[in-house]
Design brief:
Helices cover 21% and strands 33% of the residues. It is an alpha/beta fold.
């Protein structure tokens, strides 16, 4: 039988390996992105703030987004030069997975898969 301390220690080790970011999530109408691919409003895509975009090093990576009691995944395809640290800009399809488009902006947590 496992003790409570052993279980908490295992959870702490697991969660410490996932670096989560927090910030505002907004939406945009994708087209030709900074990663060189063309997407549309129904594509599961995200544009990252300059620090997380890392000069394109994260192009093609997937992130998990959590907010408003919902979770979804999106692929990095673009840079959001106006996004603050931790903020992301997603396609309407992804925003709608978390909150109605009419909200316009919502606080989320996200992390690389």
């Amino acid at each position: 039988m496992y003790s409570k301390a052993m279980i908490l220690a295992a959870v702490a080790v697991f969660t410490s390996t996932v670096a989560a970011a927090s910030g505002d999530m907004t939406y945009f109408n994708p087209g030709l992105g900074a990663c060189g691919r063309t997407d549309n409003d129904g594509s599961p895509v995200v544009a990252l703030n300059p620090a997380d975009y890392a000069n394109g090093a994260n192009c093609g990576r997937w992130i998990t987004i959590q907010g408003n009691g919902h979770q979804t995944a999106a692929q990095v395809v673009d840079l959001c030069p106006g996004c603050a640290s931790g903020a992301i800009d997603v396609s309407p399809a992804i925003f709608d997975d978390i909150a109605p488009l009419s909200v316009g902006r919502i606080r989320v947590n996200w992390f690389f898969q």
